[in-house]
Design a protein that fits this description.
66% helix; single chain; Protein Binding, DinI Protein, Chain A; two-stranded parallel sheet
Length: 211
């Protein structure tokens, strides 16, 4: 009986002697992650839908401006056929000046409104990405998440080559790229019936340019 216990303890010690070094040599989880923010924007379902709607509104506004300019062009053609010292000429000239001024103001206001709408869209999507990245990093004990430059190929023009040279990250282990994970989380929440509430996270004022 004592011999069996002795050999059992001896076997356990031998196994632990082989297992412990293996466990000790296991690589720690990565503390740095990379996220391709531009890629998420391009594949974000809600952002692309809202951007399509905004582009439709811009197209309609441009069509309206085109029609108003055509009307002004017709009025100017009529004006050219009138004598400058007649009441009709003066009245039409004043009407053209007013319509031209109204059109200029309208175009400026519309442009401002569209820029503000696009800025809000960019900010809201970026905040959503930031929230998802923050929660994922906290859950997986990742201490730093960096923005990864989009994959742009080898580059052909001088400008593209300079862009490649200036990329802050020259090499990275594919395992630390969490872009697809973050995108899938966002897409999952965008599906019908998914929870709409986003986890709380720190806010930021840095809005990426996607164009």
């Amino acid at each position: 009986m004592l011999k069996r216990v002795f050999f059992g303890l001896l076997s356990a010690l031998i196994v632990s002697a082989f297992v412990s070094p293996v466990l000790a040599q296991a690589p720690p989880p990565p503390e740095v992650a990379l996220v391709d923010v531009v890629y998420i924007y391009k594949n974000h379902p809600a952002y692309n839908s809202l951007r399509t709607e905004l582009q439709s509104a811009v197209d309609l506004a441009e069509l309206d401006v085109k029609k108003r300019r055509e009307l002004l062009k017709g009025m100017m053609e009529r004006l050219s056929k009138l004598k400058s010292d007649t009441p009709d000429y003066v009245a039409l000239e004043q009407a053209i000046a007013k319509d031209q001024s109204d059109l200029n103001v309208s175009v400026q206001l519309q442009r401002k409104r569209f820029i503000e709408q696009e800025a809000r869209m960019l900010h809201d999507v970026y905040q959503e990405i930031l929230d998802e990245v923050t929660v994922y990093c906290q859950r997986n004990h990742i201490r730093l998440a960096m923005r990864k430059s989009p994959d742009e190929g080898k580059g052909e023009s001088a400008e593209q080559i300079v862009g490649l040279i200036n990329r802050p990250i020259i090499y990275h282990d594919p395992a630390i790229d969490i872009t697809q994970v973050i995108l899938e989380q966002i897409q999952r929440k965008a599906r019908p019936g998914a929870a709409t509430a986003r986890p709380a996270a720190p806010t930021t004022t840095n809005v990426p340019r996607t164009r």
